[in-house]
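Comment thread on ticket #2218

A.B. wrote:
> Attaching the input chain for the structure job we discussed in standup.
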Amino acid sequence: MSAPVTTLDETAAQLVRDHLAVVGYQVSEVLPRVPSSVTRDDLSSAGFLALVLAARSYDASTGVPFARYAALRVRGAILDELRSMDWASRGARARAREMGSTVDRLTVSLGRTPTREEVAAAMGADAATVDQARADLERRVLSLDVPGSPVAEVLPDAAPTPEEVALTRERLVWMRAAVDELPERLQVVVEGLFFDDRAPADLAEELGVTPSRISQLRTEALALLRDGINTGLDPDLVPEPTRPDGVAERRRQRYFAAVADRAVRAGTVRAPA
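C.D. wrote:
> Ran it. Output below, let me know if you need it in another format.
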């Protein structure tokens, strides 16, 4: 499928032609996490239109590279397209959220993934209700707004383009740098849960904390990782600090600088603008 460029001036049209791979990359990243009823063409159409609109409105004087600007616009359009397909009723969404919260709570308390019977008992429901809630949860496309585990940031395309390969390599370099620069306790939690597949209860015993504290450290670490990676790749996604001069924010800024320095020293990425 080709992008419609006939209504653009030549500069904008060239931007579209040069960055068609951005659409393919974003679609390939999202497609494995949506229901099979969603086709590549559905998402590509929304992405190509967003690319055209991005080229038309791009202002080079901002200093933001067009590839980065277009990626944000394309991904936003794909998510909007998925939201428009979201069929789930309010009740189904509520059940899905309840089941997700119950599974998370039981995983922390049991130190393992709970069975469907254990989830049903905790919810005060039968197994059939749990099965339906699980199906609803899997089909909820709005969950794409929640950042995924950075460990899963790989392209599923069997034949990626050179630009897609470069973008993926850069993302992985920043992810590894962000993990390596985490404070020691947060790094233990992230590597234990996501790299070594350890149970939360094991990490709690090692660190001398409760399983619920492991859950809190996990949340804290993933938020810091996300912002550390986005500082280099998508700065517009990093939230403005509530207390710019506070001690916590100064620590965050030191972490961001350390992540950037490590990523650049890895020799495969450029310094962030």
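A.B. wrote:
> Thanks. Noting for the ticket: The CA atoms of residues 32 and 54 lie 25 Å apart.
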